[in-house]
Amino acid sequence: MYYQPIVRLSTRETVGYEALLRWKTDDGVMTPGYFLEAFEETSLLWPVGRTVIADAVNELKRGIHKVLGDDGFVTINLSKRQLLDPDIVDVFRRAADSGVDLAKVWIEVREDFVIRIESSAARTIEFLHDLGCRICIDDLGKGYSALSYVKDFPIDVLKIDNSLVAQVMTNDTDLAVVRAICDVANAVGIETVAEGIECDSVLPTLEQLGLDYGQGYYFGYPEPPEIAFGGDGPMAQPAI
Ligand code: G
Ligand code: MN
Q: Which helix or strand (DSSP H or E) is residue 225 part of?
């Protein structure tokens, strides 16, 4: 697992980390784009998915709280099939029972999935929110949705996709879309994250638009825990 910082734009301080799955091979480190779809179609998804959650929760208690204090949070990406897993809520419930503050666990669900969500997955989102997790919509803006799901789901955070963020300086339509997203979010008390920030020239515009957080190579690359949080020896066996 790799961890990438999420920064509060007003102060530029790191406030949390996104847990990102990586697969180390002899040819290099692969990102989920190359293998997740294959996993999704096999039973491998379940153990891999559980390991991701366990690792992220464990790292929250160790590395993240070590470098950010108790307010630091971790975000975990859940796929469509994981949200359909009837046991997934229990995985988080057990983490809470072991002393993890689930308010510091943010769940990322891709926007294209939420738009066509099945009711059992929708209930999972509600259960996780009721347990205290913060629900984030990931990759927002890839499909220019109408944001109508914000009234149907307990959404806490909107993560605006790289492609939109990259265009706010040069494309008036994209700027207007991001402004509209921020206006809706601010009006209903949802927080916003700009993804894919690669240079500082876009920061004043993002702050002006009212975005709360930023993430991207400009602030930090996804790194393994020993680099992201400093050496702490090998991870203990996950508790869940
Ligand atoms: O879909 P999601 O937003 O969870 O994907 C995050 C992916 O985006 C990670 O694989 C990460 O490596 C990549 N990423 C993170 N920051 C940047 C960035 O600044 N630019 C680009 N192009 N990709 C990024
Ligand atoms: Mn994500």
A: helix 225-228
Distance CA 181, CA 135 (A): 16
The response to whether residue 20 sits with its C-beta less than 6 Å from ligand 1 reads yes
Please tell me whether residue 29 adopts helix, strand or coil conformation: strand
Distance from the CA of 72 to the center of ligand 2, in angstroms? 17
Residue type, 133: C
Nearest to 161 by CA among 176, 184, 179, 178: 178
Cα 99 to ligand 2 centre (Å): 25
Phi-psi group of 151: left, alpha or beta (phi > 0 → left; psi -120 to 50 → alpha; rest → beta): alpha
Distance of CA 69 to CAs 15, 104, 107, 197, Å? 9, 11, 20, 25
- Residue 153, classified by CB atoms within 10 Å of its CB into exposed (0-12), middle (13-18) or buried (19+), is middle
Closest to 214 (Cα-Cα) out of 195, 190, 191: 195
CA 226 to chain centre: 20
pLDDT in tens, 82-134: 998 889 999 999 999 999 999 999 999 998 888 888 888 899 999 999 999 99
Q: Is the CB of 138 under 6 A from ligand 1?
A: yes
CA dihedral 204, 211, 67, 231 (to 10 degrees): -80
Q: Is 198 in the pocket of ligand 1 (CB under 6 A)?
A: yes
